[in-house]
Specification:
Elements lengths: L1 E2 L5 E4 L5 E3 L8 E14 L3 E14 L7 E14 L2 E14 L5 E14 L3 E14 L13 E13 L5 E13 L3 E12 L1
Antiparallel strand pairs: 1-2, 2-3, 4-5, 5-6, 6-7, 7-8, 8-9, 9-10, 10-11, 11-12
């Protein structure tokens, strides 16, 4: 989806054509969310986090996009030697008023460790499982069901007290029920 100017929204049907949406160009959206978190310290170097959140989004005219969201997140943070490690998991459900409900589960591991006085290396891996349920109003929703993997590594370096650099590279794959998506990411940043 891309936007060109006020109210002109198009979706890409193929590499050569753009088709306009046939929905209202102006609508009012109301959103609300709330969450609650609990953190429990475990020993001197570890902690456990539990977070639950609920969100609601409603539109005045185009009510087919109204959605309620529910998310539960957990993480365990600790240190082993000179490494900081975080193990996390998340479950979410999006309950659309007209479309198929969607469910997502993510689990992963991330960490970092210093190397000398100026360098820090970081890494992460995550596994995701996303599903849409097929129902009478959306008979193709489960075609986007997917299993995803992503890996990222990074390096931060402090040149001096004012200038630092940050480099990272990532690779991911999303294996959809219909089709497959590969993606890579990289980032370079200099801060002062």
């Amino acid at each position: 989806v891309r936007s060109r100017g006020l109210g002109d929204v198009y979706k890409r049907q193929s590499s050569d054509s753009l088709d306009p949406f046939n929905s209202p160009m102006h609508d009012r959206t109301y959103s609300a969310s709330t969450d609650i978190s609990a953190v429990r310290r475990i020993g001197e170097d570890s902690s456990f986090l539990l977070n639950a959140s609920v969100s609601d989004s409603r539109q005045v005219i185009e009510t087919g996009d109204d959605v309620e969201g529910y998310t539960l997140t957990t993480s365990y943070d600790t240190t082993i030697g000179n490494q900081g490690i975080s193990i996390f998991g998340m479950f979410s459900k999006s309950d659309y008023i007209d479309d198929a409900d969607s469910f997502s589960t993510i689990a992963g591991l991330s960490g970092f460790f210093p190397s000398g006085d100026r360098s820090t290396y970081s890494y992460s891996y995550s596994l995701s499982d996303s599903k849409g349920n097929r129902n009478s109003s959306d008979t193709t929703a489960d075609e986007t069901n997917s299993i995803g993997h992503s890996v990222t590594i990074g390096h931060d370096y402090a040149v001096n007290e004012i200038i630092s650099t940050s480099l990272s590279i990532g690779y991911g794959i999303s294996e959809n029920k219909v089709g497959c998506l590969l993606y890579t990411s990289d980032a370079a940043d200099e801060r002062s």
